[in-house]
Amino acid sequence: MRRTVIIGTGSYAPDNIISNDDIAKLVDTSDEWISSRTGIKERRISSKDTTTDMAYEAAKAAIKNADINPEDIDLIICATITPDYFMPSAACMVQGRLKVDGAAAFDLNAACTGFVYALVTASQFIETGMYNKALVIGVDAISKILDWEDRSTCVLFGDGAGAVVLSASEAGDNKGIITSILSSDGSKHSILQCEALPISNPYVVPAAQSMQDMGFNKKSSVIRMEGQEVFKYAVRNVSALIKEAILRADLRAEDISCIISHQANSRIIEAVAKNCNIPSSKFFMNLDRYGNTSSASIGIALDEASRAGSLSKGDKVILVGFGGGMTSGAVVLDWS
Ligand code: COA
After folding, report:
1. Record: fold of 4-168
2. Is 174 a catalytic residue?
């Protein structure tokens, strides 16, 4: 059977660095509170880069790293919850800029698990033989949907994009994705959410002059979160997923060289490491510099781990995510 191999990684983050002290000028918080509760020291907040800009830059870097021509790509999947348009999709915007004629392109929303969901989705097309080369992007300009007056959420997030190029493994080659798991629990949707536009048309309210008249409350399109519930969900589900993924891959915990988890909170990662009996040193972390970049975080971390030489050929690597939905997912890879 064909397997899916990651042949290139890339990432991009805006150059505008916002420290915890900078955020403390906006809301009643402190570097001490944010660092000790989350591990985050700074994040990138876009002052000009759009979602499409960031996705395009990460994609370009991944294509260069894969050493292929953009025209070789036949599928683009972009995971995002903050596209620039309801339509066209961010994936189509990137396809247009890359001039990848004819490739299938669509967006996918699995919140902070988006990168894992997109990777697994693309791998199904590759494994069936429908496509040979896929570009997977996780991107969020999450700063657009933050309530910058809510200290319990605005301190946690940052903007950015991560991307990978996927290809089919050579015949008989055991590299690439060994196994994957996707999961969701919509009954917990309200613990982490951001409302979209409400129903509004001439049959619901009298024709209105402005969004305000239509009762559209700008504040509703921001992230609302029950922090402790999300924390508990993350620790429980990510621990269970890692254990299940290792079993399905027919491996033991000690065979795993590196775990690239969604970068939300160092305390979540440390609790998961303890539950799984895996040293926390095996969990790659860069959330101190980026905060939680939502759909982008695993892609950015994977690119940094790869470029830092933290991944060697033959390493067994786990990518694992969790996020709004609630969603969660994991992939076990033989790194090539
Ligand atoms: N600065 C200072 N104080 C803050 C604060 C901030 N940025 N945010 C909240 N507080 C206050 C609260 O108002 C509360 O004060 P009170 O005790 O007077 O009511 C106190 O700190 C404790 O709040 P609490 O929510 O219990 O803190 P916590 O220890 O649970 O930490 C999170 C809060 C958000 C860091 C933690 O719950 C978390 O990381 N949850 C997961 C969130 C996540 O990862 N979301 C994205 C998933 S993809």
Report:
1. Peroxisomal Thiolase; Chain A, domain 1 (3.40.47)
2. no
Annotation marks residue 262 as catalytic: yes
**Alpha-carbon 32 to chain mean position:** 26
Pick the CATH number of 176-190+222-334 from 3.40.630.30, 3.10.580.10, 3.40.50.150, 3.40.47.10: 3.40.47.10
Average pLDDT of the segment spanning 95-110? 96
Cβ contacts of 92 within 8 Å, gap of 6 or more:
105, 106
Catalytic residue of the set 78, 112, 154, 194: 112
Q: Which residues contact 313 (CB under 8 A, 6 or more apart)?
A: 335, 336
Q: What is the distance between the alpha carbons of residues 220 and 181, in angstroms, rounded to a whole number?
A: 32
pLDDT in tens, 188-222: 999 999 999 988 888 886 655 555 565 555 567 99
CB atoms within 10 A of CB 171: 7
Q: For residue 26, what are its two tokens?
A: 């906006």
pTM passes above 0.90 = yes
